[in-house]
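INPUT
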Amino acid sequence: FSFKFHLSGTCAHLQTAVGLHRCHLNITGACSAIQKMTRVRVVDNSTLGNTPYHRPPKCIHVYNKSGVGKVGDKILLAIKGEKKKALIVGHRRPGPCMTPRFDSNNVVLIEDNGNPTGTRIKTPIPLILRKHEGEFSKVLAIAQNLV
Amino acid sequence: SDHALSKFSIDFVTALLRQENASNICVIQLPPEMRYSDYFIIVSGSSARHLHAMAHYTLKMYKQMKQENNPHVLIEGKDTDDWMCIDFGSIVIHFMLPETREIYELEKLWTLRSYDDQLAQMVPASLPDDFIFGLTNKQQSKSFLHKRDLQ
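OUTPUT
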């Protein structure tokens, strides 16, 4: 499905070679789902999520009893030097049986009142969000591709 | 369990929304391949209170008509003032203010799907030039070091 690469410290020079794209190369294998300090990929078309910055967006808090966020959990992101709430729509960790596993930790930016910041989402969004308790119909409404 | 859902049909819902003075009622029938719902409704309201009243009245009607074994339905976006939605399973209703409707253009997305113009305007994500799929960690780090020596 999706892909994302994180730049480690030794490969920082490659970013200038490839240009403005946030090319982060992820060297580690599939780890846990999203927790504090995980770098995430913003998949909607909001300006905050798509303007390049020298640091990738990082999770700084998970609104959950355990600190680990799965699909459908709200998290707090540090993005472009500001704090923004976001909703997890896919992670690299395998989830329950017959649910999609993504190649990148995908996240959709939302406001404090729950409205999505962007207006369209191109990456696939899992349909299990519908079964979850919470306000996901808005994110499903702006998604192009439902999985 | 089918009785309530057959009574709470699309015609009933549209009649209800017309009775509530909802403006610009847009009902889109979705194909079953989407596996989302059967009908997707978008309505506009004149103010935040209007949206709130419409959403709560629709929910009240549903609760009156549903049987014991129908699932409960919640209103999403209660603390927003411009966008509320209710998911009834086979029908999804979005109550928005006209300005919010202009920003998101849900009708365009759900009728045009991939041909939507906002989607076309989005810059596609691209792979970096030196991406090679399937490299193991060792091979990857070796190739990066090689590149650094070249430069």
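end of record. Chain B touches chain A through 45 residues (CB under 8 Å).
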